[in-house]
UniProtKB/TrEMBL annotation:
Top-level taxonomy: Bacteria, Thermotogati, Synergistota, Synergistia, Synergistales
PANTHER family found in the cross-reference section: NA(+)/H(+) ANTIPORTER SUBUNIT F1 (PTHR34702), NA(+)_H(+) ANTIPORTER SUBUNIT F (PTHR34702:SF1)
UniProt name for this protein: Multicomponent Na+:H+ antiporter subunit F
Transmembrane stretches, start-end: 29-50, 55-78
Taxonomic source organism: Dethiosulfovibrio salsuginis
Membrane disposition: Multi-pass membrane protein
């Protein structure tokens, strides 16, 4: 069953990556990048279940925090054209 979940997440990641590349507008690409990061975080959590290894969960947590900050920075940059920190 876990293999089916991993294949579904992999297919979803490919479709999300396609939307990041081809997206008609910049906001569509930002939303697709956020969705892709969520899918990849879930993929890492599923790998933790498959291999029964908690290191994958640590990596997934760090990746989720960094991807959240990345999406906020991208949105701020494309809203104003430069970063006003």
């Amino acid at each position: 069953m876990i293999y089916l979940v991993l294949w579904g997440l992999g297919l979803s990641a490919l479709l999300g990556f396609w939307r990041v590349i081809v997206g008609p507008t910049v906001p569509d690409r930002i939303v697709a990048a956020d969705t892709l990061s969520t899918i990849l975080t879930t993929f890492l959590a599923a790998l933790a279940l498959l291999f029964d290894n908690t290191v994958f969960l640590d990596v997934a947590l760090a990746f989720a925090v960094l991807s959240f900050a990345d999406v906020l920075i991208m949105a701020k940059y494309f809203e104003h054209g430069e970063l006003h920190l």
